[in-house]
Each structure stands twice: as structure tokens, then as C-alpha cells.
Amino acid sequence: MTEHLRFCEHGKKYALPLSIIRSTLKVVTIDEESGGVINFHGKQIPVLALDFKERRVIQASDSLIITAIKEGEIALCATAIEGITALKTTFPGELTGTSIAEDGTIIIDDLSLVPLSRSIEPPKDREAQAILERRARSITLPDNTDEQITYQEILRFSLGYVEYAVEMQYVREVILTGEITPVPGIPPFITGISVVRGRIISLVDLRKFFGMPEVGLTDFNRVIILSDGRMTFGLLVDRIRGTSHLKKPFSPPTAETGIPESHLIGIVGDLIVIDGKALLTDESMLVNEQDNTANIQIKTVPE
């Protein structure tokens, strides 16, 4: 099955092939005088919305998906980014260029065939406008200098008030949090286990694993399944913030994050980038306790 980036728009669930996604970001100020574009690292990219025969009113909570079409790149409006998962087409969609997944998600197979609109209206609220302007300034620097070398793709997520990221190469999929079964006698950072596609997966609370203070409320409504081919487990997170590419320069790891340097790649602004390989090879993740009452062996499951 093909991996897709899932997003919401106009109350419906959509998905785009991950192969055509360049980046995702929170919505920024749109330059109407230049034809409705954003300045994305020195490139003028048009902002479009799925055409629902009405003007798309931007909210500060919206996102933009930088994606490729035949004519080049566009920034597609989305109410929310839901994460990455593998989807299988079940039958053709009503719109040309789309199909429908098993769960009803509308898969956009060919974005160039789907009606798109430039009728986008900025927020009227001054505070929201100021937020969008600040975001726009942060993405205007050119992307082709020696200091802006592109590194691996990362998946951004949040826990409480803090935003983190992990390398996409270790992300197998992102799923909604299902039923969590607590198991006695295992480390406190393992919240429990869950069955994912017929396999038992340990679910990890990163804050407890690193002994960090639990700042902000969490609802753990997503699970990021990490795997390196030998080890597999899930990270419990609050929100998926999208994908992007890690670039230089970034701050070196510091003790202020509460995460040891051995498990950090670096810090980019307020984003803390965790070393996925270090997590997957950490011996603390190996749990071999036996719950005799349930007769289930609890361990991070190897591939």
C-alpha cells in the first residue's frame, strides 16, 4: 500500500501520496498583490484550496501542504494535518483524479485533475494577521545557501506545549490511539500495549522515559509507530504537526530539554529533534516481563 499524508478540509478527510509532499507548515500571510503566493525559502509558491464554490477563509490554526503538481509546486490549504499512514484504494471517487479508501478517506491520486481555487480570504482578526506575518518572515530565507543544507525528512509532533520531531526513516505509520491495555510489572514509561494490525506493540510515553516534567495537558490521540527493522514500538503523542526537512544551522543539544545528548540530533528554534536510532537501540526499551494472568509476553516487537 502507498503511504499518504492525511489531512482535513471542509469537514472531510483527504489524503495525498507522500511521494509528492515537499513540506508542511502552519499557514502564513499570503501576498495577494503578487497573485496569492507565499515566499517559501526564496520561491514564490501559489496558495490554492480545494474548490468548494466558495471563498476559503484562512484561520491561524490552518496548515499549508507544499506539494508538487504538473505545473510545479503549490501550497494547498488544510484545516488540519492528521499524519502519515498507508492507504489502499477500494473504489473510484466522485471527483476525477480521486479514489476512496476503506475508511472513507478521499485519496487525491492526481491533484492536477481536481478543481482548485485561488479564492482565499485572509483572516480579519488583527491578532491572527500578526501571527501569520511572523510565520511568513520565518520562511523567507533562501533554501540554497551552504548553511541551509537539507538533511533527512522529519515528522513533527507535540506533547503538551512542546514540539518535537523524529526522522521519517524510522516512522512506519501514524495511527489513531486505540484501546490501551495496561500491564503490571513493566517500566512506568510503557503506558501499556495495543494490537496494531494483529501485532502486540508497546506504547511509550517519552516524557516518562526521559524523566521530563509533564508540562501541559495531554490526550495521546495519536501513535507514531517507530521501527528500524529489528525493533518496533509506538510513541504516544498529542498532535501530528506535519513533515519537513531538517536543515542547518541548528542549535546543538543542551541539557535544557531534559533529553540526554545521546538521544538528540539538535534544536531548530523551538523544535526538539530526537534521534530515532538512539531510541530504537536503547536497551531500556527491551522489556521481557511475563504477565502470567494474561499470558502475554510484553516486549518491543522485532520485525
How does this model look, in words?
This protein has 303 residues and is mainly β. It has two domains: 2-144, no CATH class; 148-298, OB fold (Dihydrolipoamide Acetyltransferase, E2P) (Beta Barrel), CATH 2.40.50. It is 8% helix and 47% strand. It contains three helices and 26 strands. The strands form six sheets. Strands 9-1-2-12-11-10 form a six-stranded mixed beta sheet, with no helix packed on it. The longest helix is centred in the middle third of the chain and has 13 residues, at 126-138. It is globular and about 60 Å long. The protein starts with a strand and ends in a 5-residue tail after the last strand.
Counting DSSP H or I runs of 4 or more residues, the number of helices is 3
Q: Summarize the main sheet.
A: 6 strands, mixed
Computed structural class: mainly beta
Strand content: over 45%
The level of helicity is under 10%
The first-level CATH class name of the largest domain: Mainly Beta
Average pLDDT, to the nearest integer? Answer: 83
Mass-distribution shape:
globular
- CATH superfamily caption of the largest domain: CheA-289, Domain 4
Rounded to an integer in angstroms, the radius of gyration calculated over CA atoms is 20 Å
Strand order of the largest sheet: 9-1-2-12-11-10
Return the CATH architecture of the largest domain.
Answer: Beta Barrel
Low-confidence runs: 144-149, 289-303
**Whole-number total of structural domains:** 2
Number of strands: 26
* String of helices and strands: EEEEEEEEEEEEEEHEEEEEHEEEEEHEE
- Terminal CA distance reads 18 Å
